[in-house]
Amino acid sequence: MIYHLASNLLRDSFNRDDLVPLFRELPNRETSPEIWDRQVKYWSTFMKKWGYQNNVLDFSVNELTHALEYHNVLPPLQPSVDILVTSKILISQDSLLNREKSFLSSITGKLFGFMGKEKGKCDIYIFVDNLKNVVQKIICDVECETTFSTDVVLTNEEIKEKYCQNYDFELIKAELQHTKGVKAYPNGYHIQCGRYSTISQDLVVAILNTKSIQYGIQKRLKQIEHDTQHELQKACQFKKQNRIKEAKNCLRRKKILQAQESRMSIINDNLSNILSQLAENELTKLITKDITQINNAAKKMQQPNIEDVDQVMIELGELIEDSQNLSDALQLPSQKYDDEEIEAELQALFKTNLPNQTKHRLLSQANTQK
Asked: What is the pLDDT along the chain (370 residues), one digit of tens a residue?
């Protein structure tokens, strides 16, 4: 499928008048530097565009070359591949899977003055950034979904089922082993993130072993369920054919399978309980550690003694008293008014030159207020 996409991309991107120099086979650059440089630039750009647009993880140079065949002429891709390898955009599969071994071999060769036999040129290459993106997605998913310590420990089977449906697990495995924040174990990985980044190695091993056993049990349960349905279907067929003996044998085998399923279901539940207990124990340990750190921090805080508190209270009382005295000194003297005097003054207003209507209204308001 990915090679078909490359063929479509080539068909949509080139000018047919320029095909001849692009497909011309040159033994080396000295033959025609201009055409060589043009080929390398075009095909390296083309492969990068094809790889990044389609999230290509690994590909075969031979298959890609034949997918880009035009009028029985194959494009010279290998020089461009070599340039991309030098630029660390691509890495050969052999180099990826044998990074540590290759490093040790090179050191040995320098120390003892010999090198091992060179192998044939690798045909499979990997886009380095695309591989890193897959691994980073695994780490990000774990960080987002982590609740307990069992969530940061992934078995090889979990990674295969969730992330390697379209990718080679060996490539993912090789990159995980060289990724910062990931610790590799024989049967899985510890993604060191969040508060569970420092859990003990014994706990990681216990979780991995429990999960691996449980995976085997669950796989067997699925097979038993399939076999049980198959025996039941055979029994029904034999019954229709009036082959009673064969039908009974099928039902007996179904009963045996169901008994196995019951026992394995109990084992599976026990393993789930063990994982839950491991997660709860680690969470309790972390909470206890947090509480201890808080208590230690509180003890280191400078606490005031009783004499200092008493002195502060005395000074505060004196400040409140001074403020009250100042407020009293600034307050205006209160004045008292006689209600009869106010009434008399109001009546006197009606005897002035106010209009009759205004007097009547004021008098009514005065009576209402009374």
From this structure: 789 998 888 877 666 556 667 777 777 777 788 888 888 898 999 999 999 999 999 999 999 999 988 778 888 899 999 999 999 999 999 999 887 554 445 554 444 454 444 445 678 999 999 999 999 999 999 999 988 889 999 999 999 999 888 889 999 999 999 999 999 999 999 999 888 888 899 999 999 999 999 999 999 999 999 999 999 999 999 888 888 889 999 999 999 999 999 999 999 999 999 999 988 888 888 888 778 877 777 777 656 666 666 777 777 777 777 777 766 666 545 445 566 776 677 667 666 655 555 555 555 655 555 5
Provide the CB-side half-sphere exposure for 222 (13 A, CA): 5
The pTM assigned to this predicted structure is 0.69
Q: Which residues contact 157 (CB under 8 A, 6 or more apart)?
A: 211, 212, 215
206 contacts 188 by C-beta, under 8 angstroms: no
Residue 354 half-sphere exposure toward CB, CA atoms < 13 A: 15
Look at residue 154 and give its three-state secondary structure: strand
